[in-house]
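Dear colleague,

As promised, here are the two records you asked about, laid out in our usual form so they can be pasted straight into your sheet.

NAME FIELD: protein one
SEQUENCE, THEN STRUCTURE:
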Amino acid sequence: MDKSTKQSALHAHAWVGVFLSALLFLVCFSGTLAVFHQEFERWEQPGIPEMNTTDAATVEKAMNAFVEKHPEPTDHLFAVFPTSGIPRLVVENDTVAYFADSNGNLLETEQVPFTKMLVDLHLYLNLPHSWGMILVSALGALICTLIVTGIVAHKRISKDAFKLRRGENAQQYQIDLHNRFGLWAAPFHLIIGVTGTYFGMAGLILVVVAQLYHDGDRDAVVEKIFTPDPVLEQEVAQPQLQKAIAQMNTLAPQHPLLFLTVHEANTPQQFIEIYTQVPGKMIYSENYRFDTAGNYLGTAGYAQGHWGKQLVYAMYRLHFGNFAGIPGKVLYFVLGIMLTALCVTGMEIWLAKKAHPPVLTRAWYSVAWGSVSALALTALFGLFADVSLIMLFWVLMLVNLVLSSAFSQSSKSLWLIIAGSSVLLLVSVYTLYHGAAGFTPAALQLNLPLLAFAAWSVRKGTKTGSRQTPGGVPLVNQS
């Protein structure tokens, strides 16, 4: 490509990234953490008994106990199996959920406010869902734009593909790191951008396709992608979950059970749908359907459906890395950190070129590193206070921004130390609060990495602080 094209791509890349840097960072950072949303759910209630398997009789007993405790009308009933990725048995309706033990006895209610806040931050930026989904999806499209313009603007892709200069010029090292992360992980980042865009734009796509091919009939489009519900007329009765689950040993013996749903609960159209993971397929699940009496009706047909249907049904797993167990999640976490680092290094490169405007530089550090302390303190308050964690998080972010603007000493090193100290405080109080449960695998699987981050952050902040001016603005060679 000619020089003017590369220059135009570079300008587009820079200005899109700068103007939306804070939103892009929050979406990427929260999404990286949300890869472990199931682990965060376990972490929030570490004392729940865990199991690897359960049987049909236990599930039905737990559901019967739940319905007896909550007889209020509901559209759906759910049972989440221990093979779903969280080694716990959960029964719930549309509003409340309970854990159950290996004998089918109900335990405490499911309370995961921090996990819900974190996932909501990634999916909607904590905005009303209809608007938040559109905004986040637009940011997904902009991520794709940044990837393409970044590659186009790169002057020597093949020559510099593995160049990472770590000499005295730290700014050059940061530019190299930004370019290497952007190039090496571009396929993954495109997948994240495209799938993220899809979630918000699916409604618009639905309307367009309906107008073009089905005279505006949206239901006709939905039925081509998602298998319609079976048409049933039965006596209203208690769903025979045990009979339905027992048949899965014959119907799909190699498919781990994810969860089951009782649709149209307590109506003549009621039916049972069991969701199973399909080995060797990227689709979220294949769904097995049964009537109220537990008689097998057939599958939803996703595993053997048209490739386009399978692709749509694979979007969730592609976006969140929900495959290959913990190794897949670790891979997505590392690649997500690279995407988040692109947001951070891109903004810091721009700030360096503008000679680090003091107020803007401090404000950026309060967003990039202050968000860590805001999340840690939000989780900490969530242990004790029944408050809106969404509101609390944004209040803390606002306080960070005000403090960084008001005090000239609020440097990058200070925010790093605050981030590490906040995480250390969270883990310490968490362990004291939960007692022996704080040393279960459900707790340690996150607390140990959090402690490692706290140690790194404090060490990095201390080291960085020695290379900053008294006003908190980095020196020329500051990394």
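NAME FIELD: protein two
SEQUENCE, THEN STRUCTURE:
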Amino acid sequence: MQKQWLKWFVVGMLVFVGASICSRSVHADDSLQRVKEKGVLTVATSPDYPPFEFQVNQHGHAKDVGMDIELAKQIARDLGVRLQVKNMDFNALLVAIQTGKADLAIGGINPTPARQQNADFSQIYYYGGESFLVNRADAGKLNRQSALKGLKVGTQTGTMQERLAKQKLKGTHVVTMDKATDLILALKTHKVDAVGVETPVAKAYVENDPELKDFKAAYQLNPKDTGSAVALPKGATTLQTAVNHSIQTAKTDHLFPKYLKTAGKYMQVNTANTSMWHYWKYFLAGLKETLLISVCAVLGGIGLGVILALMRLSSLKWLSWPALSYVEVVRGTPMMVQVLLVYFGLGVFINIPALPAGIIAVTLNSAAYVSEIIRGGINSVAKGQGEATRSLGLTKADALRFVILPQAFKNIWPALGNEFISVIKESSIVSIIGVTDLVYELNVVRADTYRGVAPIVVVMVIYFVLTFTLTRLLNYWEKKMKHT
């Protein structure tokens, strides 16, 4: 019976969210009018793809730059509104426009037939072509596409390069990763033999990293779905017309070569000083976000966990079953899925910013595990304690507050400590929706400096210091509890 209740609970949630998303499409198109009324054009991008979009260090603060960002600025100027850039993983860009998190998505996106089923696109604004990156030491033998047969070729997940590699590179093992920076690191550490990217991206890496070399791909390409275009929500025809007008103006005025030149200047600025100390403000900003998320999730997880534990222990089915269902759903699904559901799913009804959405998701996840820890702690308290409280005339609430829970927390303190440490580490998953935590800043620094390992070491040390300090504090309080 409980499993049946859980199944209908999950199905109901999926139908509710799906129906809400679909309901957006029944209204007449007012996409352009809505952008002008709010005075802001929100553009989603993944700033790890130079020279299309990346970030530059300006006085210790990250600034989104690149050819695509220049185009987004031009579109916003033409509309007479302010530009707001939202950073997230490439895989989340189309979801962002489908759920209303962004008005446009831009990021070297190819308007493939599969993508056109879920989004509308502007006219093609740039044809870059396809290339492969290899280590310069291997350039003598890996200088043409046919030489890749039997080797490992890396591509970014969900991109045109992934589709082309899987379709065209027969006898080649295709390795996909979410971040272009991860692919470059995999190439330089010989986890893959080559990386498929667009030609401008390949040129950008070769010009800024002497260890890399590139060569042109031999794909037979269809220009209709291999160029870069701006993605829009389905049915946003008025906004699409305005975007196309801006793109055509930029083409007529020959602005795209200027955009690429500007991007090249920014890339030279990034590589002028690639020391980790130069980016200390990035790591500090990420540390603040990580600590904020962790503290809020721990406090919220304990509060909600106590409530869920008491519901689970209740003899009333209408209290125990919802709590049981909640715990099973959370423990049975990855935290990444939960973060995406809170940010994009709930975003259908409430436009929750990335940071609050990340805090909510991590808190809800932690609460499920904390509730089971607390429930076990309450059950570990001897039944005689409860009988003693009743003999003293204490109410159930007072007995729970003053006798049962204090003893339970003393018993479960080590387990709670482990959960707190896990929250600090697992909160890094929120970087997928653009929360600027330590892992997000790690990827920014890697993209900016073309250094794959050094930023990872810095962030690893920061996490170790955090968890080691917390472990010492938890051990101190555990000893204090034993003597009380």
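A couple of things worth noting about protein two: The chain has 19 helices and twelve strands. Residues 130-220 form a domain with the D-Maltodextrin-Binding Protein; domain 2 fold (CATH 3.40.190.10).

Best,
R.
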